[in-house]
Amino acid sequence: MATMTIDENDENAVYGWPKKKFKYQDREIETCGFLEKDSPSWPAFHIAFLLSSYVVPLILISVLYMWMLSRLWRSSVGGRSAESKKGKKRVTRLVVIVVAAFASLWFPIQVILVLKSVDVFVPNTHFKISLQIVSHVLAYTSSCINPLLYAFLSENFRKAFRKVTRHPVGLGSLCSQGTVIAPEDNFSLYQA
Protein backbone atom coordinates (compact mmCIF):
# COMPACT_ATOMS: atom_id res chain seq x y z
CA MET A 1 0.00 0.00 0.00
CA ALA A 2 1.32 3.43 -0.92
CA THR A 3 0.96 6.51 1.28
CA MET A 4 1.80 10.08 0.31
CA THR A 5 2.84 13.18 2.20
CA ILE A 6 3.44 16.65 0.79
CA ASP A 7 5.95 19.00 2.32
CA GLU A 8 4.96 22.47 1.08
CA ASN A 9 7.79 24.22 2.94
CA ASP A 10 10.58 22.04 1.57
CA GLU A 11 13.51 24.28 0.61
CA ASN A 12 14.53 21.72 -2.05
CA ALA A 13 11.26 22.13 -3.94
CA VAL A 14 11.78 22.54 -7.67
CA TYR A 15 10.49 25.83 -9.15
CA GLY A 16 8.13 26.30 -6.23
CA TRP A 17 6.58 22.86 -6.65
CA PRO A 18 7.01 20.85 -3.49
CA LYS A 19 8.28 17.33 -3.35
CA LYS A 20 5.74 14.59 -2.89
CA LYS A 21 6.94 11.71 -0.80
CA PHE A 22 5.48 8.28 -1.40
CA LYS A 23 5.95 5.29 0.82
CA TYR A 24 5.72 2.06 -1.14
CA GLN A 25 6.42 -1.12 0.79
CA ASP A 26 9.73 -0.37 2.54
CA ARG A 27 10.90 2.41 0.24
CA GLU A 28 10.34 6.16 0.23
CA ILE A 29 10.03 7.71 -3.22
CA GLU A 30 10.16 11.46 -3.86
CA THR A 31 8.71 13.29 -6.83
CA CYS A 32 7.90 16.90 -7.52
CA GLY A 33 4.66 18.06 -9.06
CA PHE A 34 1.79 20.50 -9.04
CA LEU A 35 0.11 21.51 -5.81
CA GLU A 36 -3.46 20.33 -5.86
CA LYS A 37 -4.82 23.54 -4.38
CA ASP A 38 -2.82 25.80 -6.73
CA SER A 39 -3.48 23.94 -9.95
CA PRO A 40 -6.54 23.19 -12.02
CA SER A 41 -8.31 20.00 -11.13
CA TRP A 42 -6.66 16.84 -12.40
CA PRO A 43 -9.81 15.59 -14.13
CA ALA A 44 -10.18 18.89 -16.01
CA PHE A 45 -6.48 18.87 -16.92
CA HIS A 46 -6.55 15.30 -18.22
CA ILE A 47 -9.81 15.77 -20.10
CA ALA A 48 -8.31 18.86 -21.77
CA PHE A 49 -5.18 16.82 -22.48
CA LEU A 50 -7.31 14.01 -23.97
CA LEU A 51 -9.11 16.50 -26.20
CA SER A 52 -6.01 18.40 -27.32
CA SER A 53 -3.63 15.47 -27.80
CA TYR A 54 -5.99 12.71 -28.97
CA VAL A 55 -9.53 13.71 -29.98
CA VAL A 56 -8.70 16.87 -31.96
CA PRO A 57 -5.69 15.32 -33.79
CA LEU A 58 -7.72 12.17 -34.56
CA ILE A 59 -10.58 14.24 -35.98
CA LEU A 60 -8.13 16.42 -37.89
CA ILE A 61 -6.21 13.56 -39.54
CA SER A 62 -9.45 11.71 -40.27
CA VAL A 63 -11.06 14.72 -41.95
CA LEU A 64 -7.93 15.64 -43.90
CA TYR A 65 -7.31 12.08 -45.06
CA MET A 66 -10.98 11.69 -46.07
CA TRP A 67 -10.71 14.94 -48.04
CA MET A 68 -7.51 13.66 -49.70
CA LEU A 69 -9.12 10.30 -50.52
CA SER A 70 -12.26 11.91 -51.94
CA ARG A 71 -10.09 14.05 -54.25
CA LEU A 72 -8.08 10.97 -55.22
CA TRP A 73 -11.18 8.92 -56.09
CA ARG A 74 -12.82 11.81 -57.98
CA SER A 75 -9.70 12.63 -59.98
CA SER A 76 -9.24 11.38 -63.50
CA VAL A 77 -5.50 10.79 -63.00
CA GLY A 78 -4.73 7.32 -64.29
CA GLY A 79 -8.13 7.07 -65.94
CA ARG A 80 -10.64 4.38 -65.10
CA SER A 81 -8.29 1.46 -65.66
CA ALA A 82 -8.14 -1.55 -63.37
CA GLU A 83 -4.55 -0.63 -62.42
CA SER A 84 -5.66 2.88 -61.42
CA LYS A 85 -8.45 1.49 -59.22
CA LYS A 86 -6.03 -0.99 -57.69
CA GLY A 87 -3.61 1.84 -56.83
CA LYS A 88 -6.39 3.94 -55.32
CA LYS A 89 -7.51 0.99 -53.20
CA ARG A 90 -3.93 0.52 -51.93
CA VAL A 91 -3.72 4.20 -50.96
CA THR A 92 -7.11 3.99 -49.22
CA ARG A 93 -6.02 0.89 -47.28
CA LEU A 94 -2.79 2.61 -46.23
CA VAL A 95 -4.64 5.71 -45.01
CA VAL A 96 -7.15 3.63 -43.01
CA ILE A 97 -4.29 1.67 -41.41
CA VAL A 98 -2.34 4.85 -40.53
CA VAL A 99 -5.40 6.44 -38.86
CA ALA A 100 -6.31 3.19 -37.08
CA ALA A 101 -2.72 2.84 -35.83
CA PHE A 102 -2.76 6.36 -34.37
CA ALA A 103 -6.16 5.82 -32.74
CA SER A 104 -5.36 2.41 -31.28
CA LEU A 105 -1.82 3.18 -30.09
CA TRP A 106 -2.72 6.40 -28.26
CA PHE A 107 -6.07 5.27 -26.84
CA PRO A 108 -4.83 3.12 -23.91
CA ILE A 109 -2.66 5.79 -22.27
CA GLN A 110 -5.33 8.44 -22.74
CA VAL A 111 -7.89 6.25 -20.97
CA ILE A 112 -5.45 5.44 -18.15
CA LEU A 113 -4.61 9.12 -17.59
CA VAL A 114 -8.27 10.14 -17.42
CA LEU A 115 -9.11 7.22 -15.12
CA LYS A 116 -6.14 8.08 -12.87
CA SER A 117 -7.32 11.68 -12.61
CA VAL A 118 -10.69 10.57 -11.21
CA ASP A 119 -9.08 7.92 -8.96
CA VAL A 120 -10.60 4.98 -10.84
CA PHE A 121 -7.23 3.64 -11.98
CA VAL A 122 -4.70 3.47 -9.14
CA PRO A 123 -1.32 2.03 -10.16
CA ASN A 124 -0.79 0.16 -6.90
CA THR A 125 0.00 -3.30 -8.27
CA HIS A 126 2.74 -4.58 -10.53
CA PHE A 127 0.14 -5.42 -13.17
CA LYS A 128 -1.32 -1.89 -13.20
CA ILE A 129 2.12 -0.30 -13.26
CA SER A 130 3.11 -2.60 -16.14
CA LEU A 131 -0.13 -1.76 -17.93
CA GLN A 132 0.62 1.96 -17.67
CA ILE A 133 4.21 1.45 -18.91
CA VAL A 134 3.03 -0.65 -21.86
CA SER A 135 0.43 2.02 -22.66
CA HIS A 136 3.15 4.69 -22.71
CA VAL A 137 5.34 2.54 -24.96
CA LEU A 138 2.43 2.00 -27.35
CA ALA A 139 1.85 5.75 -27.55
CA TYR A 140 5.54 6.41 -28.25
CA THR A 141 5.50 3.64 -30.87
CA SER A 142 2.95 5.68 -32.78
CA SER A 143 5.64 8.26 -33.48
CA CYS A 144 7.85 5.84 -35.36
CA ILE A 145 5.39 3.43 -36.95
CA ASN A 146 4.21 5.57 -39.89
CA PRO A 147 7.42 5.27 -41.93
CA LEU A 148 7.29 1.50 -41.40
CA LEU A 149 3.66 1.35 -42.47
CA TYR A 150 4.32 3.41 -45.57
CA ALA A 151 7.35 1.28 -46.41
CA PHE A 152 5.90 -2.19 -45.85
CA LEU A 153 2.50 -1.43 -47.35
CA SER A 154 4.16 -0.17 -50.53
CA GLU A 155 4.45 -2.82 -53.21
CA ASN A 156 7.55 -1.16 -54.69
CA PHE A 157 9.28 -1.25 -51.30
CA ARG A 158 8.41 -4.91 -50.78
CA LYS A 159 9.79 -5.85 -54.20
CA ALA A 160 13.05 -4.01 -53.58
CA PHE A 161 13.33 -5.45 -50.07
CA ARG A 162 12.85 -9.02 -51.36
CA LYS A 163 15.46 -8.40 -54.04
CA VAL A 164 18.02 -7.20 -51.51
CA THR A 165 17.35 -9.96 -48.98
CA ARG A 166 17.70 -12.79 -51.53
CA HIS A 167 21.44 -12.15 -51.81
CA PRO A 168 24.05 -12.39 -49.04
CA VAL A 169 24.84 -9.05 -47.45
CA GLY A 170 22.35 -7.36 -49.76
CA LEU A 171 24.72 -7.41 -52.74
CA GLY A 172 22.17 -8.46 -55.36
CA SER A 173 22.31 -5.21 -57.29
CA LEU A 174 26.12 -5.17 -57.20
CA CYS A 175 26.33 -8.71 -58.62
CA SER A 176 24.08 -7.81 -61.52
CA GLN A 177 26.40 -4.90 -62.40
CA GLY A 178 29.48 -7.08 -62.92
CA THR A 179 30.88 -6.99 -59.39
CA VAL A 180 32.37 -10.29 -58.26
CA ILE A 181 32.45 -11.59 -54.70
CA ALA A 182 35.66 -13.49 -54.03
CA PRO A 183 35.28 -16.01 -51.18
CA GLU A 184 39.04 -16.35 -50.83
CA ASP A 185 39.24 -12.61 -50.06
CA ASN A 186 36.74 -13.01 -47.24
CA PHE A 187 33.94 -11.50 -49.36
CA SER A 188 35.89 -8.45 -50.47
CA LEU A 189 34.58 -6.81 -53.61
CA TYR A 190 36.39 -6.15 -56.84
CA GLN A 191 35.30 -5.21 -60.35
CA ALA A 192 35.27 -7.95 -62.99
TrEMBL record:
One of its GO terms (molecular function) is G protein-coupled receptor activity. PROSITE patterns: G_PROTEIN_RECEP_F1_2. Signal peptide: none annotated. InterPro entries: GPCR_Rhodpsn, GPCR_Rhodpsn_7TM. It is found in: Cell membrane. Residues 32-150 form the G-protein coupled receptors family 1 profile domain. GO terms for cellular component: plasma membrane. The chain crosses the membrane at residues 44-70, 91-113, 133-153. Pfam families: 7tm_1. It is a multi-pass membrane protein. Its main location: membrane. Keywords: Cell membrane, Disulfide bond, G-protein coupled receptor, Glycoprotein, Membrane, Receptor, Transducer, Transmembrane, Transmembrane helix. Belongs to the G-protein coupled receptor 1 family. This is G-protein coupled receptors family 1 profile domain-containing protein.
